[in-house]
Amino acid sequence: MPKKINTAIILFLIISLNILLIKSCSNRFTHTVPSLSVSLPSVNCRIVQHAMGKTCIPHHPQRIVSISQFTLGNALTLDVKPIASTMYLAADVSPDYLFPKYLKNRTAGIKPVGSQLQPNLEKILILKPDLIVGWEPVKEIYPLLSKIAPTVLGDWQNLQKSWQEHFNFVAQILGKEEVAQAAWEQYYQRIKKLKIALGSRYQNQEVAVAYIGKDGIISYVKNSFDGWILNDVGLQRPKAQDVNSNFGRIENISEENLAQIDGDILFVMTGDIDKKELLKTIQAKPLWQKLRAVQHNHVYFVDDTTWLGGTLLAAEAVIDDLFKYLVNTP
User: Fold this and answer.
1) Among 126, 143, 175, which residue terminates a domain?
2) pTM over 0.85
3) For the segment 107-147, what is each residue's pLDDT rounded down to a tens digit?
4) What pLDDT does residue 100 have?
5) What is the DSSP string of 25-83?
6) Same domain assignment for residues 311 and 194
7) Same domain for 88 and 160?
């Protein structure tokens, strides 16, 4: 009988020791590697359709992380301020380029969490969001994002209208359809006022848009963001830009083909980050001096983060530029 008792005691001690070891290892692992376990969806959520399928999202999310400058701009248009967002460019750029310039003081307090094509998963995880809203180009990491919080990605395939559709998508996800409708009405009211202010003075003139900077010379055509706005205003485009192209642009314009970006009026996108080195080189070329816009002193330099903004807030800023240079400039 005592031998059986001793055996039972030894067995109990072995089991207890194993349990303590397992708990100790588990605790140590938890402190060194953040958990990405999926939280079970709450009953207080609704099913939404998006580019990656269906997801149950909270009815009233409080800690939203946005992925892409477009998603961020759209959320702010809808009076929703994310706790964090991906940056406009990479992490090593000037602080002025963490977020697009057209957002001005609207981004105060929003934490940067990587670039819009390479979100920082660890930073997002630490913030404990209850909803992640983004765009399709980050679909490769969607499984990881969706383990942190319910994640929805907007379709970005229709390049001609994607900026408009993404705005409506974000509005639907955030339950802000009425605010979105009011924002659209404001946009078209401003377009109407601009058309009235312009009158017929530019009826026979062509408006060209180009980017000159660290990525070379790029021509922006009809199905670009700025091209859509110019079309709404009723401004004519040069023949070389009165076309649709992949991503709304034609890249790698050579210095010998500067005529492809020429018009009676030329808007040149350039940013501080480019240091304008290529622009200075181009302006010294004889072919630059032959451009119509240059000869008539109708070249206007505008912020690239605004004219590539892809949101209604950016569209408002583009309209401001059109008023400034086409209405108020002598």
Assistant:
1) 175
2) no
3) 999 999 998 899 999 999 999 999 999 999 999 999 999 99
4) 85
5) HHHHHHHHS---PPPPPPSSEEEEEETTEEEEEESS-SSEEE-SHHHHHHHHHTT---S
6) yes
7) yes
